[in-house]
Specification:
Length: 608
């Protein structure tokens, strides 16, 4: 089989798996820049186009078989058991603390099954359009949330995607592409900015808001290149939290008249926040509804004649004041502004001479008229108290805000295939990676650290030290970072793999621990490096050497950091070692356990 580098696709399909909606778009050879969005989905009317499909699946009762997915799931149906909002449950950091919350295993199954349905639908759509489709090579690229920082988790997700996709055709491959924040940034650059413009992209969707700061470094006409000025960050801020707050408010009111309802308040409240409420929420801030003092929602089990002033229900409708809805928006927009302020302050510290040109909003929540008004008032109005690096920032909304991520994913790959250049050359790593090693003992540096005497050279070494190869926030070239190794191997062990223990930390670079004796680093994987084919010299081999003979083996391990994943390459004498028999570096990922590293993942704070 060809290696991934040699395998070039005829069609590239981007898939943006979102908390509430999932999008798919594609582009194909030879006109890669021509991009199409999948807009027909099962369950919609023939004349109906939808940019994305709802992220949900439904199973038949007591059965593993899928009954429906996306638009085919009907929340109005009695006894429907729809699995939705499971994206966050894929993360091991997410703590499920509400009744009936799914386990990670369940969420993984729903994810795999949902992706399989999306895949089948995309394949069916493409096979109707492309002649000789079975012989076409199709690459499916998935974006990953910015909050998924652990490469072990990405490996798991990759495994689930492989289960959903690969079995069907040897011509189809699945890869993890950019993070959502990166993809949204690539898309935002479509809007013809100028060289040296610095753009802060804020992609706010159903469950998360991602922020990314980039500078346009390419000249007009050349392939677009962006320089990342900061590592991408995500926070649990999104439109679903408004639904949740209103759901909570409705439940509280219904609780007062529970005896008259016939169904649990929680269930009724879920029904009430679909339909009309969603339309009102999505139009909030627009002129058309600005004069409505309140929103009136039908209470499903009550007739037109019923009134319960204690629950603010009149003639079978609950009245929710505009201010109450605005308060829910304001809470989340305040969080969003805090988040953006943190990024601006960090930028000012790291790049004091860079000035922000644009704040670009994308995603469903980012497309809200009210969100835009508030951000304009906060950052670009005449009365705004401005940050020194954002004095002339302009707030703009991405062209098609919902599609920013999925289009950005495809655009990045398409430019690479067509012009050989990716948008984001070097990237600022979101976490730090290091290897555990022994280093010559230094009394000042290693006071209190565990030590060992090497019987071969009789020298003292501090052990369990961490050599931080990649540090959070520092730019890393796409070709990776290299670490030289010079190891001594006993002659009888020359064919055994050399073990390298890789660790990671999400702590800021200046707080990274020096060794495993301190908190803050967790194991990611163990590499087994097979040293056949690398430079070796036998030492102490002469009759006059009194010390035992050993091999001095020299090689480089290259750490290639992708948007979310991690790969390793073995190099010796400036050549990459490839082996036909097995991978020169075998990776054994450390399994998860509930980790408490003293740092709280942003997912952890998300309660739904
Ligand atoms: N104008 C609007 N105002 C407020 N919310 C909106 C608006 N338009 C869409 N939304 C909400 O945005 C969400 C969909 O946006 P999007 O598709 O960007 O999210 P997602 O990709 O599912 O979420 P995430 O990226 O967090 O995983 C839904 O919750 C929808 O109700
Ligand atoms: Mg999204």
């Amino acid at each position: 089989m060809e290696s991934l580098e040699e395998w070039t696709p005829d069609i590239v399909v981007g898939i943006d798996f979102g908390m509430t909606f999932t999008g798919a778009a594609y582009s194909f050879t030879p006109r890669w820049s021509h991009l199409k969005t999948i807009q027909r989905w099962p369950g919609t009317l023939p004349s109906e186009l939808a940019n994305k499909a709802p992220t949900c699946v439904e199973y038949r009762p007591d059965c593993m078989e899928i009954k429906g997915w996306g638009f085919l799931c009907n929340p109005e149906e009695e006894a429907s058991d729809i699995k939705e909002f499971f994206k966050l449950h894929l993360s091991p950091h997410y703590q499920e603390d509400y009744p009936g919350a799914p386990s990670r295993r369940e969420a993984q199954r729903w994810f795999r099954d949902y992706i399989r349905e999306i895949y089948k639908h995309v394949v069916a759509t493409l096979s109707n359009t492309f002649p000789l489709f079975p012989s076409r090579r199709v690459e499916f690229i998935f974006s990953v949330p910015t909050t998924w920082k652990d490469p072990r988790m990405i490996e798991e997700v990759r495994g689930l995607i492989d289960e959903a996709i690969h079995s069907d055709s040897p011509n189809h491959r699945a890869v993890i592409g950019l993070t959502e924040a990166e993809a949204a940034a690539v898309y935002a650059c479509k809007q013809l900015y100028q060289k040296d413009d610095v753009i802060l992209i804020c992609d706010a969707g159903g469950g998360t808001t991602d922020v990314n700061v980039l500078k346009l470094v390419s000249s007009p006409g050349a392939p677009i290149r962006l320089q990342q000025l900061n590592n991408v960050e995500g926070r649990p801020i999104g439109s679903v939290f408004i639904d949740k707050s209103i759901h909570h408010l409705i439940c509280q009111r219904l609780e007062r008249i529970r005896h008259c309802l016939g169904r649990p308040p929680n269930e009724i409240a879920w029904k009430m926040i679909s339909g009309r409420f969603q339309r009102f929420k999505c139009s909030f801030g627009e002129d058309a509804i600005s004069t409505l003092p309140s929103l009136k929602l039908d209470v499903p089990t009550l007739g037109r004649g019923s009134s319960f002033p204690e629950a603010e229900i009149y003639n079978g409708q609950m009245s929710i004041a505009r201010e109450e809805i605005q308060r829910c928006f304001d809470d989340k927009i305040d969080d969003m502004c805090d988040f953006i302020d943190v990024q601006l302050d960090r930028m000012h510290l790291m790049h004091p001479f860079e000035h922000m040109s644009y704040l670009v909003l994308s995603g469903g929540f980012g497309s809200s008229a009210y969100v835009r008004q508030r951000l304009c008032a906060r950052y670009s109005s005449e009365t705004a108290v401005k940050k020194p690096n954002a004095e002339s920032i302009q707030v703009i909304t991405a062209d098609e805000p919902y599609l920013a991520v999925v289009h950005g994913l495809v655009m990045n790959r398409a430019q690479q295939l067509e012009r050989g250049v990716v948008y984001l050359g070097s990237r600022c790593c979101r976490v730090s990676y290091g290897i555990i090693c022994s280093v010559p003992y230094n009394a000042q540096r290693h006071l209190g650290e565990p030590v060992k005497i090497d019987s071969r050279d009789k020298k003292t070494y501090a052990i369990n030290q961490i050599d931080w190869i990649v540090k959070q926030g520092e730019p890393i070239p796409p070709t990776g970072l290299s670490r030289p190794f010079g190891i001594k191997v006993e002659p009888g062990q020359i064919n055994d793999p050399w073990k390298v223990h890789v660790v990671m930390s999400t702590l800021p670079a200046r707080e990274l621990p020096q060794s495993m004796t301190h908190d803050g680093a967790k194991s990611v994987c163990i590499l087994s490096v097979y040293t056949e084919g690398v430079e070796k010299k036998l030492k102490n081999r002469h009759w006059y050497n009194s010390d035992p003979a050993y091999w001095m083996v020299k090689f480089n391990v290259k750490v290639v950091v992708g948007p979310a994943d991690l790969k390793f390459e073995l190099w010796s004498e400036n050549k990459q070692i490839r082996s036909s028999k097995h991978e020169p570096i075998a990776v054994a990922w450390t399994p998860y356990k509930k980790e408490t590293e003293g740092e709280v993942s942003s997912d952890q704070k998300f309660l739904l």
